[in-house]
Amino acid sequence: LGRRSSRRELFLCFSRASSSPGLLFCKMLGFLQHPVMVTAEVNLNMVALTAMGLLSRLWQLAYPRAVVFDEVYYGQYISFYMKRIFFLDGSGPPFGHMLLALGGYLGGFDGNFLWNRIGAEYSSNVPVWSLRLLPALSGALSVPMAYEIVRELGFSHCAATGAALLVLIENALITQSRLMLLESVLIFFNLLAVLSYLKFSNSQKHRPFSPRWWFWLVLTGVACSCAVGTGLGPPSPGWGDVPSVLWQVRVLCHLLARAAALVVLPILVYLLFFYIHLLLLYRSGPHDQIMSSAFQASLEGGLARVTQGQPLEVAFGSQVTLKNVFGQPVPCWLHSHQSTYPMIYENGRGSSHQQQVTCYPFKDVNNWWIVKDPGRHQLVVNNPPRPVRHGDVVQLLVHGMTTRLLNTHDVAAPLSPHAQEVSCYVDYNISMPPQNLWRLDIVNRESDTDVWKTILSEVRFVHVNTSAILKLSGVPLPDWGFRQLEVVGEKLFRGYHESTVWNVEEHRYGRSQEQKERELELHSPTQVDISRNLSFMARFSELQWRMLTVRSDDSEHKYSSTPLDWVMLDTNIAYWLHPRTSAQIHLLGNVVIWASASLATLAYALLFVWYLLRRRRRVCDLPEDCWLRWVLAGALCAGGWAVNYLPFFLMEKTLFLYHYLPALTFQILLLPVVLEHVSDHLAPCTHSVWSCWVGCKTAKKRQGRAGSSRPRQGPVLLRGRWWTQPGPLLLT
Length: 732
What we know:
The protein has 19 helices and 14 strands. The chain is α+β, with helices and mostly antiparallel strands. It is elongated, with a radius of gyration of 38 Å.
């Protein structure tokens, strides 16, 4: 009665309020009859694992206060960021370096420290704790993420806790994350990409296109970009969840959403990394020579200072230096000097004994050449200048210091006998006429009337008489060639290659016809300023190419190893040694964890093949949901291990044990998954088979005892007789 009366009173209240201004107030009172509650679930496992991860990675982070192993390299890059000096690291994109530099910036680091040797004591201006903070945080947060990944895969809290504890206590992961190195950052973004994908996949089953669904999808793409921007990472997942009913209109929406989040967005984020990188590093640095002349001219204080004031258009009579665009094995300039090729080479072949033409990797006055008009004798620029255009034939080139013309003829090159020798012609009064006419081919021209431009134009020189192309072979000459690089005339060349492409780097208009005055011009600076700013996409494209082609230091190291050494932990690295107390830091993994993880990967592969073969015969050992969970765990964990491990077999650079850590992390995630699967599905089956076998053996023994107490009869007494009557055949 009490409840009915209260409801009747509330109804009368709303009835009266329907015609009064207090309607809203009465409704609010009715709403407030129900309490507003906010509930939150706290996973104490996650809290404890996170706390232990932070404690193990951050405790006494600044110790040792000295340069430890590869900190000597990453510290140099951080100093370059602080001083805005351009550098190129062929090991990967710059996102990881920028994160380390962010730690230095937040710590107030000014970049003034000499990173010259391992073990050097840090000065007071180096914020060691701040520089090591981001790698340590990445390593600490990888622990709870390992827990969450195993849970999202559908396995128990026990398996998830086991995976997190293995990541927490693994020696090598702890050591690597406490230093100014990038492996822990790469592991963090790898795990973040996998976790985001699993969250997205699970939300896909309930509410696709919800804010939660979009959040995890976008985070998956961003995490993949960050992993690739730091180093080698997992490919973008997420395409396997598109509904199979292709006639649904929603399929198109799913495809567009995934394309935007997993393709377009990662590309934009990757471009953003390099945009920030190039925006910060605008000053000339030690790696300028690796880049093209146009790239160098866009940097402040380097080639931009040298080329400041150069005329843009190359004219007849111009004085130029020619740099090879390929720049391999080292950047170099077309060069000549007074020395000639030896009359007889070491292998017995003869030469033309003409003046040597090489490619020299240093700035030198002998790198200067003069572009001469074949129809005139003068070596100065007319007024107004007459520009050189695509297809023009030039008497290329008059060497600035020796006044001899660039020449090639049907004589084998010294170290590349399939190609022609290139020389500066010396008149020995013999029956070998000069062949010094070259046709200009502008490779990046927009039309056939394009003008040859300083720095911007990439050109090839085609010999008029033999159609040979001036090419850098890249082979170092012997001592008689001063170890400079060989230049040849490639007659059989087909297609485009940067070794045949040259560009004008330094340029001036020659004004003097006299040799002495011309030599003074070659030593004097230029005058007029012309701006040559490259676009971002041009610099980005060149930077990608240089990262792929730059030759890293592949020399043997005391602690270098091969990928086969990593799996069973047959190697280690001495990171640091205290000069007085002999305290040491070694990178050495936990043998039990490494071996168990490798065995778990092998066990997963064998079980997967076994299940797959039996399913082909329509024998399903696992329920469908368990089978899908098993396949997904292998695709992410075993697949992540393969993606982060197998590419190292194709690399020629020097490798170390720490390169295996990202792959090891995925193996560790797979270990508790395999153990739980064996415990839940194979152990009961094994117990049943064992019980059945024991039961059969027991029954057989009892049957044998019962039979031995009776007299022998039947088939035993009939042995050796012929079968005469038909009847049932009993097999026992």
